[in-house]
């Protein structure tokens, strides 16, 4: 099976309107920049995007929000995007805010084949509305379901043509779990190498989970919020 694609455009060719997509990264760190740009170019609409956050106004998922291509966001932090706020308050965007640990675990459970789990996070808040509640050892817990997606798109530092991936530091946040939770997993990498060039002990996501891979380019690697000490 040849997993290598020539470009982001080719790798996302069958993502259609109303698709559910997971997008890896943490803030602006380790996001699949080339794939997001390809989705903007393709013009698909009605997307449900599952991501730690919604990018910023002119970068990351903020680009898809700007072009009104996202119908629903499932995220844990969205405080850096003014356009997101505007669309939410105007009723243009459906939003499911999820506690960050719950979001990470719901994604992880899909890869582990576990359909649901119990967590205390969100009990007694609006998050608990409509969810099953059970008591364990005198403490109340919500039942949360595993989170699936038709496509999972991640960005890794290095990958080989078999789909084995290596991430750098915080960029593996969410991405390693998302890669195992999509029906089709697409990986863009900074460096694409041949099989055997990655030490098996260094692999963070095994190639069996990755269906498509391509070498990206022109990564900006922006800083979401600069803090300067005078």
Give a verbal description of the structure.
GO terms for molecular function: succinyl-CoA:3-oxo-acid CoA-transferase activity. This is 3-oxoacid CoA-transferase subunit A. InterPro entries: 3-oxoacid_CoA-transf_A, CoA_trans_fam_I, CoA_transf_BS, NagB/RpiA_transferase-like. With 230 residues, this protein is of the alpha/beta class. The strands form two sheets. Strands 1, 2, 3, 4, 8, 9, 10 and 11 form an eight-stranded mixed sheet that branches. It has a three-stranded antiparallel sheet with strand order 5-7-6. It has a single domain, classed as 3-Layer(aba) Sandwich (Glutaconate Coenzyme A-transferase), CATH 3.40.1080. It has six helices and eleven strands. Helix 3 links the parallel strand 2 and strand 3. Helix content is 19%, strand content 27%. The chain is globular and about 55 Å long. The termini are far apart.
Jot down its keywords.
230 residues; Glutaconate Coenzyme A-transferase; eight-stranded mixed beta sheet; alpha/beta; three-stranded antiparallel beta sheet
């Amino acid at each position: 099976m040849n997993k290598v694609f020539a470009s982001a455009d080719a790798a996302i060719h069958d993502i259609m309107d109303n698709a559910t997509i997971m997008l890896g990264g943490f803030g602006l760190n380790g996001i699949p920049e080339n794939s997001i740009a390809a989705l903007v170019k393709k013009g698909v609409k009605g997307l449900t995007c599952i991501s730690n956050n919604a990018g910023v106004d002119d970068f990351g998922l903020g680009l898809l929000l700007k072009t009104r291509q996202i119908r629903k966001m499932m995220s844990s932090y969205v405080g850096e995007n003014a356009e997101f706020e505007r669309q939410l308050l105007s009723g243009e965007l459906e939003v499911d805010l999820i506690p960050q640990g719950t979001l990470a675990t719901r994604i992880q459970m899909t890869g582990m084949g576990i359909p649901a789990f119990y967590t205390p996070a969100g009990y007694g808040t609006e998050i608990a509305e409509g969810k099953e509640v059970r008591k364990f050892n005198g403490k109340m817990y919500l039942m949360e379901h595993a989170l699936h997606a038709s496509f999972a798109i991640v960005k890794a530092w290095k990958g080989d043509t078999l789909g084995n991936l290596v991430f750098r530091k915080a960029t593996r946040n969410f991405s390693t779990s998302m890669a195992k939770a999509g029906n089709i997993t697409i990986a863009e990498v900074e460096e694409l190498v041949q099989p055997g060039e990655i030490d098996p002990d260094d692999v963070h996501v095994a190639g069996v989970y990755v269906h498509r891979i391509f070498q990206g380019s022109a990564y900006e690697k922006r800083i979401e919020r600069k803090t300067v000490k005078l």
